[in-house]
Amino acid sequence: MQIYLDYSATTPPDPAVVATMQRQALTGWGNPSSLHHWGERGALAVEMARWQVAQLIQAPSPETIVFTSGGTEANNLAIFGVAHGYDRPQHLIISAVEHDAIAAPARQLEARGWQLTVLPVDPTGWVNPFDLVAALRPNTVLVSMIYGQSEVGTIQAIADLAQITHRHGALFHTDAVQVVGRLPVDVQGLGVDLLSLSGHKFYGPQGSGALYVRPGVALVPLLAGGGQEGKLRSGTQAVPTLAGLGVAAALAAERLAAESKRLGELRDRLLSQLRHNPHLLPTGNFNHRLPHHLSFVLKDVPPTLTGRELVRQMNLAGIAISAGSACHSGQAAPSPVLTAMGYGARQAQTGIRFSLGRETMAADVDWVAMVLEQVLGRAIASHLAPVAG
Questions:
Q1: Confidence check: pLDDT of 330 > 70
Q2: Is 321 helix (H, G, I), strand (E, B) or coil?
Q3: Collapsed DSSP state (helix, strand, coil) of residue 4
Q4: Considering the domain 15-252 in this protein, what is its CATH number?
Q5: What does the pLDDT read at residue 291?
Q6: Catalytic residue at 327?
Q7: Which candidate, 169, 112, 111, places its Cα nearest to that of 141?
Q8: Bridge-partner residues for 374, per DSSP?
Q9: What's the whole-number mean pLDDT along residues 358-381?
Q10: 130-163: per-residue pLDDT in tens?
Q11: What's the pLDDT tens digit per position in 160-176?
């Protein structure tokens, strides 16, 4: 039996998305910037996708959507797009549990003279809004807080954090890559100025994403060229890819409520079967959590047993899980996210994540729970066994 429980890393493109992309590639491949009929067909597909993405996040207009190659580019455009508008270094605030697509640009700005504050989190990965109040300075120009944490599933109080930021007069950005398509998102209700999303997290094509830019927010583009995407992202748009992103957004909006509820119930079912295991310690905030997400660290296991090793053993059993974020799961270093939450260096190497999706059924989570118990038991026994010779 093959079971995929790594939907936070990526999701399979919906068949309707694949069909749309294929059709667009064959019949609607014209350059959207061209004035002739072929170009008009391409432009129509791009603008339809822009409208569909805007609808998914309840943006005030399609013009607020800037298409990118994914969440990483959207995050970089938000961070550097604001920063490059200043002649002198200013102050930036992020959290200790940001994705590297936020943390790395922030560190680059710090190396260029910007002041950077990294807000701490509690043991569940949650940012205390009062810490943001205390961290704001007269020259704070941007606050960026992750919405849903990919490794531990914790959801931040984005509306509260944005309101605090705006009272101070700064801009607020959120990396919502793990949230959009999985929970209702209303950018106006949240009060955010900038929001990043990625198509391959909600059954769209890899290589597709967007940045929501609130009307009136000025950004400096990262790319110089033809001035596409409202002059914020030059380059000929990938029409088939964006058409697929639009269909994925429309399908996500249609299925959101029912699927979120279903996945939350499956997640809780899996947790109920694993929480009694003395070697599994749940991580993250269970009052504010992504509906499809479950994560643990290992405890009372041999010092040589890591999360990566358990992922490999589960893979041999035909089950895909991950050791924290897929962007870091190939690295042996302790997870910065788990370290920020107070776990020691050793335990921060033992994180594992289960993320559920549209194809996940009750029988799947039951099977995974049973197999994990067996695999974990064997792994502990093998790491405890003396080495011959």
A1: no
A2: coil
A3: strand
A4: 3.40.640.10
A5: 97
A6: yes
A7: 169
A8: none
A9: 95
A10: 999 999 999 999 999 999 999 999 999 999 999 9
A11: 999 999 999 999 999 99
For the chain, give the mean pLDDT.
95
> Hey, where are the domains in the chain?
3-9+256-379, 15-252
In angstroms, the CA 90 to CA 114 distance is 5
**Distance (Å, whole) CA 144 – CA 71:** 14
Q: Please state, in angstroms and rounded to a whole number, the distance separating the CA atoms of residues 384 and 389.
A: 15
Place of tokens 């002059």: 231
Query: Tokens standing for 286?
Result: 């269970």
- The domain 3-9+256-379 having CATH identifier 3.90.1150.10: the answer here is yes
- Position 66 pLDDT exceeds 90: yes
Beta strands 209-213 and 115-119 are unpaired
Q: Which of 377, 276, 367 is nearest to 321 (CA)?
A: 367
Alpha-carbon Rg of the chain, whole angstroms? 22
pTM here is 0.95
Strand partners, 3: 319
In the chain, which ranges are continuous DSSP H helix?
Answer: 15-27, 37-56, 71-83, 100-111, 129-135, 158-168, 187-190, 239-274, 307-316, 336-340, 362-384
CA atoms of 74 and 61, how far apart (whole Å):
18
The first and second tokens of residue 198, run together, are 């990625």
Residue-by-residue DSSP string for 163-184? HHHHHHT-EEEEE-TTTBTTB-
The region that residue 377 occupies, defined by phi over 0 for left and psi between -120 and 50 for alpha, beta otherwise, is alpha
Both structure tokens of 77: 């455009």
CA distance 171 to 80: 13
Q: Do domains 3-9+256-379 and 15-252 have the same CATH topology?
A: no
Q: Which two tokens stand for residue 224?
A: 């110089």
Options 135, 327, 369, 380, the catalytic residue:
327
Q: In 120-220, where do the E strands start and end?
A: 140-146, 171-175, 194-198, 209-213
Distance CA 60, CA 51 (A): 10
CA nearest neighbour of 283 among 123, 146, 128: 123
CB 118 within 8 A of CB 102: no
Question: Residue 331's pLDDT is what?
Answer: 53
Q: Which helix (H) or strand (E) holds 118?
A: strand 115-119
